[in-house]
Amino acid sequence: MNPPAILAKGIGRQASLILSIARFHEIPIRVQPGLAVSLSNKAGGSASVPQKHWDAIINALKEILATSDSRDPNKWYRDLDAKTFPRFNPLEVQVGESLIKLVSTKQGGTFLDDIKQLRKDVALKLGFVFPPVRIRDNCTFASNQYRILVWGTQIRQGVIYPDRSLAVPRTRTKACLEGRHAKNPLDGRPGMWINRSLKTRAEKLGYDILEPVKVLTSALDRTVGKFADSLREIPSY
Fold it and tell me: In the chain, at which end, N or C, are there fewer CB atoms within 10 A of the end residue's CB?
């Protein structure tokens, strides 16, 4: 038996066309945004679904069989249309309580300004303006935790210390700094969250210094770059 394959994929108008063709041929439709995002980097043209996703495909088929009406096996989804789909924000940033001051203009946060500049930079580099970013606090997080979602699926998460600075070595410096180990979200280089009193010393030792809001912006930048194809066209509801 051949493994499951991806026959078509798309967003916006292309997705609407795929849905229309599926309904015309009475092909069951399942709404699974997490799985869709996971498979978004796989090419069309009968590309095989990675084995790690086979269980999800099998479960979807079981649900289809369990909910089918014997008199009309396609009745349950005949009237499905894009307006019935749950709405997911193309881009969403969630932050813990301690990070609210980074994203709130009322508390002096500059994250929104950084997003505006990032949109301009991405437009020049990649040729499109990425969609608005939904920002909200999440009381279930650790206070200094953040995560970034694309189409409702978590893509990136991390920890930011709002009262420290992230020091990232420009070269293979052997000079040690005291702090909390971390990675630069933009390029994965190892770094250290240091007390701000050590910034000048760190710079002299060959470290780049990133302020907390820049770390969050870098994480968003990396996410937009990775999922650019999924963000170029926004579905109409």
Answer: N
